[in-house]
Amino acid sequence: MKAMLINAYGADAPFKAAEVDKPDVKPGHVLVKIAASSVNTVDTMIRKMGKELPLSPDTPAILGMDFAGTVEAVGDGVTEYSVGDEVYGCAGGLADLPGTLAEFIVADSKLIAKKPTNLSMREAAALPLVAITAYEGLTRAGIQPGHKVLVHGGSGGVGHVAIQLAKHWGAEVYSTGGGEKQLALIERLGATGINYKTESVEQYVAKHTGGAGFELVFDSVGGANLTNSFEAAALNGQIATTVSMCELDLTPAHFKGLSLHVVFMLIPMLHHFQREQHAEILRDLAQISESGGLNPVLDEERFSLDQVADAYARLESGKGMGKVVVDYH
C-alpha cells in the first residue's frame, strides 16, 4: 500500500511517499480502507518534537490519528462490524500504533464506530479526536441543561464541537474568539460570541452572568489562559481543559472552590485503558450528528495524501477555519 512516511523528526520533517506492506488484520481489529483523515495539533507536535514527546512512534513512522473509511476485513472476535461497513475513529499514529497517512489501517474495534450516516467521509474524518475530547470534557464536568457554559477558543477544532455538544445538551453557551471570522463562526454554531481582545473577563462575566460567573468553563486554549478560566468561573464551578502542561498559581481556584478536569483523550490508545469508552462515545456522537446536533466545520483548503505536508502547514499557519482534512481518492 502507499504510505507517507516520516524518516526523521524536526520542524519541517519531510513526508516521503513509499510502498509498504499492507497490514494483516488481527483478532479484535478490523482492516479499514481509508477515505479521509484529518490533521490535529498533536500530529504537528509529534512531527516537530519527535522523541521529546513520550508518545511519538519510532521512525520511520506513519503519523495520523483520525480517519473515516470502509471495512475490508474483520478479525477474529469482532462481531459488530462486517466487510463494507463505513466506520470512523481515532486509532493510530502514536507509540506502537501505525497511523492513518496510508491507504489502510488495522484499527482496534474498541476505538471505532459506524460513521454517522448524514456525514461525508471527509466530515466524519474530522471528528474523532476533537469530538471525543469535547464530549469527555463536558461530561466529566457534569454539564446540565440550563448551565451557563463558556467555551474558550470556540472556532477551533475542539472548541467548535464543544459549543455544539453543550447546545445539544441544553446549556446556554458563550464562547471567546479573537477576530471577526472566528466570532461569526461561533455565532453561527449557536453560541454568544465574546471578543477576548476587546472585552476583559470581568466585563463579560458581568455582562452575561450578572457577575456570578459561568457554571462550566471548557478551556480548549489552556496553559496561561486557565487563569482567565478561574476568573470567569462561578463559585464551586467546573473547568475542563485540554492543555495543562504548565505551572500556575491555583490560589484563585482555591478561594472559589473550583474543580479542574484535565482531558487527555489519547490515554486509551497509549495505555490500552478503557478503549471501549471511545467506541461508546463515537456511537453516541454519530446519533447526535444524525439528529442534527453536530456538524463538523471543515477548512476550505483541500489536500490529497501526497500533499500532507501542505495540510500540516495549513493547520500550523493558524489561518485555517475548521478542521484540515486529507482526501485519499
TrEMBL record:
Species name: Stieleria neptunia
Record flagged with keyword Transferase: no
Location relative to the cell: Cytoplasm
One GO cellular component term noted in the UniProt record for this chain: cytoplasm
Top-level taxon: Bacteria
Assembly notes: Homotetramer.
A Pfam family recorded for this sequence: ADH_zinc_N_2
Domain Enoyl reductase (ER): 10-326
Gene Ontology molecular functions: oxidoreductase activity; RNA binding; zinc ion binding
Assigned keywords, A-Z: Cytoplasm, NADP, RNA-binding
Protein's name according to its UniProt entry: Zinc-type alcohol dehydrogenase-like protein
